[in-house]
Structure formats: structure tokens, C-alpha cells
Design a protein that fits this description.
heterodimer; A: alpha/beta; four-stranded parallel sheet; 18 helices; globular; B: four-stranded parallel sheet; 13% strand
């Protein structure tokens, strides 16, 4: 729900600014005042109270990044945000920026720009989009690029190009394969090196760095507690939070852990879930794998037509244990290493099979995002693992970011046939 | 099928460890014309080399024991599918750091040790320092034999020779076809190319490939340092350094070094231009090209970008572009 900003906020911003869209707009204080005003106005009616928290957080962080109020660290999806918040830097997740661009319907222009630059149309459209945005100067200038080698190769590789484009360092963190306990200290060392680099940029002494990280980890642990409550409530038959909305919470899980906003977001969501909702146990319970097309809602209208709802989705669940604020680097190394996308696809398949069981799903949909060797590549194994447990699986080929690659008719026909088969 | 044979796929596989444990390491090149056989297990938008290797194994034409390198998404997916399909065989996924200096060497050394233990356990033996030393010496001799035999060879003949050496067959000097005479000298860089496909086509189009910066070409033979050490742990450390010393694949983290080495090689091998050709869906090379192109152009080195689907049935369509490029660099 965070990425698309339900309530027409993006539409309102587009109405005012699309004509004069330029890199300079994003660096003007007036623009951000307008955005903040619109976010507070009745034009923005979030479905959940928590959405207002995440929206305010992301607007503030993004505004500050464009206006250069603190050092900006670009991160790929699995970089633990505690590390960035704890050092007083601003995390910027360009893959999420690509999703926002796609939900505003603006991705094709930037994708084409990246192709003009020499990037192949066989590369992931999240990355082509963000590369196009960067080349055109639309993104906030980074002080540091920080990537980890999962979930996919694309981020590490596109960050290498961006490092040259912006003339800033790119730190690549190698996360070892699962089960390599003796390599965990080496991962912790790499995270410490990243933290020291950020401390240098933000002018923090080591003592301040350790204090900042301890606080970020405490906040992350508190957010995790509330997230676990949310997860428990979502397992109930009567939970009203639909996965099509919850999928956007990935941005909170990736970017807000270690901040006050992360705690507040999950606290409010858990509270509101307790207050709201009896949907009734009758609907079909589905799981969504990989991500959704950010620009199109029609796929979800079909689910509604068949009284099916998404009770869980692949990316929005906690995959780590509470961390030790006194030992931030080992804690964050363990958090990273425990992610189901680190290592062979059998780990991902096991995660999805566990979710399917805990959330008692009747079926599962895998959205094969074009160019994603990680998700498409692992789909056959995931399908087999779920089918072995009696969960029917539909694999849909599409593109999360480039709306020109969305075959609506074909997708509808296949989805309807699948839902009918589930009865 | 010979139970002592073991398949490997990535040029960062430490074949010395496989040989020291009594296996015969065989680099697989797959069946470029039968990729569809792998479609049930691997998405068609994955690297055709990876799909070709799985297709070959499904047809029963490859040793089922296998060592994979965690070098890219494609290779990880090959490992996933292979393990699922052939659970009774030995398989190992070796981690490969992106860092090539201190910490990278440390990680790779630990990985080599882990692989060695797994092989020892499977083979039911214990590798002594002398076993490993012998395997390293053989590997070094193989490398020198390749360098001698490759002298003066170009194009498909050169790449096929490299493939033979990767299959643990010692190439003989002066043996076989030497490559087309004449032609415009070019440096070919990329991931892995079919010598009988795109590489042979380039020769027919008038290019003389004098250096094949490919993982099935010259690249695996570029590190010179001998493996040293009195015991197995020290030799593993030295071996890890050796592998990271080679001219790097675009997947590795040290892009600057890769460009510098490529530029130096371009100047020393007498090429007049660079042909950058890579297999479809290989992200490491898809993202690398714009940066490399920028640098080469800055140095005034002409570059042509081509793509391969491994079978290369479409290569004829590239003729006009290749000829135009060769004409341009020949006239410089």
C-alpha cells in the first residue's frame, strides 16, 4: 500500500507537475512543500492509518535526500536499513523508486533511456528504469552506493555503473551461502567497514556510531515485535488486510527498520487489524509470489470477482530473530544471512511452503517478472515444492515495471481458469 | 557413465581439488542446439549455456557428479535444478566472493577447504599435500601446454583448443587447424561463446580473433603464479590467490582492473578493434557493456557489440554490421 499511495496522491502530484517534470523540480523546496501538503490533504485517503506514517517517512527521507540535508546512501533491497538509520544517513532504495515510477505510469520513458545508454532490453526493467532515471538526473545524488549480492545480480551490477556515473564509491558486501558459520565474522567485518565509511561521511566518531546503531537495532526489534503480531493476525480467517495492499509494505520492511517510523507503522497496523475486520472465512485464500505489476490493478479485480484474496505474499514477512544492540554487526550479519533469498532456491521454496501451510492457502500465484533470473529462475522449483504439498500453483509471465509488456487478455484468461479450477 | 568423472561449468572451479581427490574434471559445454529440453526446469529467459548444460545432462550425456560456482543467478539456478533432478549424485555449490583482494582470498580459501572436505568425504579418502601438489603441477603444465599450442592460433581453432585444455586434454603444439589466414585482427571479449557458432562466423566474415577474452578461451590461462605451500592449508590459500589473479570475468568486483587488463591486452595483441559478444540473458555482461564501451571509446578503441543465443543460427543476420565494423577498423 505504501508504494502506490492509495487515495490518488500520485495522481494529484502528476496533475500538477507532469507537464513540467524535470530533475530540477525534485530539488525545489516548493515541490516538496506541495507534496507534503497534498499528503496531509483530503486528497490522500490511505486505507490504513499506518500508511500515513510510512508515507510521511518516505516523503521526508526522499525530500531530505534531494535537498542534501544528510549523506545519501543508495541501497539494494536486502541492505539492512538499521545500518543506514543508525549512522544518521538517508537510505535511498532505487529499486523502490522504480516501482513508484511504474505506479505513476512513467516507467517506459526511463526504461527507453537506459536502452539508449546501451543497457539491453533483456535486463530487469526495475534496473533499466532506475538507470534511466539516474542518467537523466532525476534521482537524488548518492554519497555512497551500498549493495549486497542478493537477492539478484542486477543491483550489484547496475550500482557498479552508477558508481562511475556519480563518481562515488560502491561498496559490495558479499553475503556467504547459508551454513557457512565460519564466514559470518567476515560478513560482520564488511558491515563494520560500511558503517565506518558512512560514519566518516556523516562525521560521527566511533562511539557515536555504536550508539546510533544500538538505538537503530532497538527500534528494529520493537518494530519486529509488532510485525510478528501483524503476521499472527493475518493468519486468521477474518483478517481484512489483503495482500494486494500489503505487498507495498515491502518498502517499510526494507527501508524503515531501525527508524521510529518502522515501529509506529507496524504498531498502528497491528492495532487497526485488531479493531477492524470480519471478512468471513468463505473466500479463496491465495499466496502471491514475487511482486505485482505496480501500474495495473485489473489483475486484482479478477481476484475480487472470484471472491479470492491474497492472505500472504512472499516478501513482507519477518525472516530474522530479534537482534543484540550491543553487537550490531554480528546481529545484522545474521539478519542478512537468514534471508530466504540468500543461497539456493530450495531455501526460498521452503519459505514459501512454510507460508502456504501457516496461512492455509488454497492456491498460489507466481508473477514471473521478465528479466528476473532470481524469481523466474526459481519458479519451477517453487512450483514443485508447493504442488508436493497439495498447493496448486499458477505461473504468470509479465513485467512489474514496464506496462507495455503487460498482456492483459492472456493474463486474465489464465488467471480466471486457475481460479475456476480452485472452485 | 564413468563414476570418476565430475562436471564443472564455471572457470572459477578449482579443478585441482577435483583431480587431487581422484576425479576427472570435465568442463561441460552443453548442447547448444537442444536448449528446449531444459525448458521444464529452467525459464527460457535464463542463460542459454546453463540451459544447454542441463539439457545435455537430461539426455544422459554428461557426468552427473557436478561442482557449481555461486557466480551468477543463472549458475545458481542450474545448481538448483541439477540437485533436484539428480539427488543421488555428488553436487557442491562453491561460493565466489566479488572481492578479489584480502578478504576475497580469505573467503575463497575457506570455500576451497569446504569443497575439498566434501570431495574427500564422498570419495572416502584424505588428500595429502603431495596429492594436491601433483594436481596443481599438472594444472600448471596444462596451462603452459595451452599457451604453447595456442601460439599463432586464432578464432575458432584457438577457442576449441582452450576448451580441450579445460577438458583436461593436454593440447599438442602445432596440432590441428590454426585458424583463417588474413582477416582483420580483433580482440574478442565476452562470457562464453560457441566456437563453431559465433566465433566461426566472425572468421568467415573476415575477422581474425587474435585474443579470446572468454571463459572458454584465453581467460582461464592468464594467471602465472605457481601454487606454493608446504601443507594443504597453505596450498589452498595460494590456489585461491591464483584464481583471483586471473583476468576477471565481468561478474567480479574489480571492474577497474578488468578494463585495465583488457586495454593492455588490446595494445599488446595487435588487434585493431574489440568485438564484445556475450550470451543472451547474462546479466554480468548486459550491465557491464555500457561502462566498458564508455572506457574503450575514451581510449579511442573501436568496439562492436554482438549477442549470441549459443546455437547462433541467426549469426548470418549480423554479417552487415560485422563487415561494416571490420571495414572501418581495417581502414583506420
Amino acid at each position: 500500500m505504501t508504494v502506490e499511495n492509495e487515495g490518488g496522491l500520485l495522481e494529484a502530484i502528476k496533475d500538477r507537475y507532469l507537464e513540467k517534470l524535470s530533475p530540477e523540480i525534485f530539488r525545489s523546496r516548493l515541490f516538496w512543500k506541495t507534496v507534503e501538503g497534498l499528503a496531509r490533504s483530503p486528497l490522500n485517503r490511505p486505507q490504513w492509518k499506518a500508511d500515513r506514517i510510512s508515507l510521511t517517512h518516505f516523503i521526508r527521507v526522499t525530500r531530505d535526500a534531494y535537498l542534501g540535508k544528510a549523506p545519501v546512501v543508495w541501497c539494494n533491497l536486502l541492505v539492512p536499513s538499521e545500518l543506514i538509520h543508525g549512522l544518521g544517513c538517508l537510505p535511498f532504495y532505487p529499486e523502490m523508486a522504480a516501482a513508484v515510477t511504474a505506479s505513476a505510469g512513467l516507467a517506459p520513458r526511463f526504461i527507453d533511456r537506459a536502452v539508449e545508454e546501451g543497457f539491453s532490453s533483456d535486463a530487469c526493467s526495475y534496473h533499466r528504469c532506475l538507470l534511466g532515471c539516474a542518467v537523466e538526473g532525476f534521482l537524488p545524488k548518492p554519497d555512497l552506493l551500498l549493495s549486497v549480492n542478493y537477492p539478484c545480480d542486477s543491483a550489484v551490477l547496475s550500482f557498479a555503473f552508477l558508481s562511475e556515473l556519480y563518481g562515488v564509491p560502491h561498496l559490495e558486501v558479499d553475503v556467504p551461502l547459508p551454513g557457512r558459520e565460519e564466514e559470518l565474522p567476515l560478513l560482520a567485518e564488511q558491515l563494520e567497514e560500511a558503517a565506518s565509511l558512512m560514519a566518516g561521511i556523516s562525521g560521527r566518531r566511533r562511539e557515536e556510531m555504536m550508539q546510533g546503531l544500538a538505538k537503530a537495532i532497538e527500534l528494529s526489534n520493537r518494530a519486529l515485535e509488532h510485525l510478528r503480531r501483524v503476521e499472527e493476525m493475518r493468519k486468521r480467517d477474518d483478517c481484512v488486510l489483503d495482500g494486494k495492499d500489503a505487498m507495498g509494505n515491502l518498502s517499510v520492511l526494507a527501508g524503515c527498520m531501525g527508524s521510529e517510523a518502522g515501529v509506529e507503522f507496524y504498531r498502528l497496523l497491528a492495532e487497526e487489524l485488531e479493531e477492524r475486520g470480519c471478512r468471513g472465512p468463505q473466500s479463496l485464500r491465495l499466496m502471491w509470489m514475487h511482486l505485482k505489476p505496480w501500474y495495473a490493478q485489473s489483475i486484482f479485480h479478477i481476484l475480487e470477482k472470484y471472491d479470492a484474496r491474497l492472505v500472504c505474499e512472499e516478501y513482507t514477512h519477518a525472516t530474522w530473530e530479534p537482534m543484540d544492540p550491543g553487537d550490531p554487526f554480528t546481529s545484522l550479519a545474521l539478519k542478512l544471512e537468514s534471508h530466504f533469498l540468500v543461497g539456493p532456491a530450495e531455501r526460498r521454496a521452503a519459505h514459501l511452503a512454510r507460508l502456504a501451510g501457516e496461512y492455509r492457502v488454497d492456491g498460489a500465484i507466481h508473477f514471473n517478472h521478465w528479466g528476473c533470473r532470481q524469481s523466474c529462475g526459481g519458479a519451477p522449483l517453487v512450483k514443485k515444492a508447493l504442488q508436493d504439498r497439495g498447493v496448486p500453483v499458477l505461473i504468470i509471465d509479465g513485467d512489474c515495471v514496464d506496462q507495455r509488456e503487460y498482456q492483459e487478455g492472456q493474463i486474465s484468461t489464465r488467471l480466471e481458469a486457475f481460479l475456476e479450477s480452485l472452485g | 557413465m564413468d563414476e570418476r568423472e565430475i562436471s564443472w561449468f564455471c572457470a572459477y572451479t578449482p579443478v585441482e581439488l577435483l583431480a587431487a581427490t581422484g576425479f576427472r574434471p570435465v568442463r561441460r559445454f552443453g548442447d547448444p542446439h537442444g536448449l528446449e529440453a531444459a525448458d521444464t526446469f529452467l525459464h527460457p529467459a535464463l542463460c542459454p549455456y546453463v540451459r544447454a548444460c542441463l539439457a545435455e545432462a537430461l539426455n544422459g550425456d554428461a557426468p552427473r557428479h557436478a561442482v557449481f560456482v555461486n557466480c551468477c543467478d543463472g549458475m545458481r539456478r542450474l545448481h538448483d535444478a541439477w540437485r533436484d533432478l539428480f539427488p543421488e549424485s555428488f553436487s557442491f555449490l562453491l561460493d565466489l566472493p566479488r572481492h578479489t583482494e584480502g578478504r576475497g582470498r580469505e573467503i575463497l580459501k575457506l570455500e576451497f577447504r569446504r569443497l575439498l572436505r566434501a570431495l574427500e568425504e564422498y570419495a572416502g579418502l584424505c588428500v595429502e599435500a603431495e596429492d594436491l601438489r601433483r594436481a596443481c603441477r599438472e594444472s600448471s603444465e596444462l596451462r603452459l601446454s595451452y599457451i604453447r599450442a595456442a601460439e599463432g592460433k586464432t578464432g575458432a581453432a584457438r577457442v576449441e583448443l582452450a576448451q580441450e585444455a579445460q577438458g583436461y586434454r593436454i593440447p599438442l603444439e602445432g596440432e590441428g587447424h590454426r585458424g583463417e589466414e588474413g582477416g582483420v585482427p580483433v580482440l574478442l571479449t565476452g562470457n562464453l561463446l560457441n566456437p563453431r557458432g559465433l566465433v566461426a562466423f566472425l572468421e568467415r566474415a573476415g575477422a581474425r580473433v587474435v585474443w579470446a577474452d572468454l571463459c572458454n578461451g584465453d581467460r582461464p590461462f592468464t594467471a602465472e603464479a605457481p601454487v606454493e605451500g608446504e601443507d594443504v592449508p597453505r596450498m589452498l590459500e595460494s590456489l585461491a590467490a591464483l584464481y583471483l589473479e586471473r583476468h576477471p570475468c565481468a561478474r567480479m568486483g574489480d571492474g577497474d582492473r578488468r578494463y585495465r587488463l583488457l586495454s593492455e591486452r588490446f595494445k599488446s595483441c595487435g588487434a585493431r578493434g574489440v568485438i564484445y559478444a556475450s550470451l543472451k540473458f547474462c546479466d554480468s555482461y548486459l550491465y557491464d557493456f555500457p561502462r566498458l564501451e564508455m572506457r574503450l571509446r575514451r581510449e579511442g578503441i573501436p568496439v562492436l557489440r554482438l549477442e549470441s543465443d549459443y546455437a547462433d543460427g541467426h549469426a548470418g543476420q549480423l554479417l552487415t554490421r560485422v563487415e561494416a565494423f571490420l571495414e572501418m577498423i581495417a581502414g583506420d
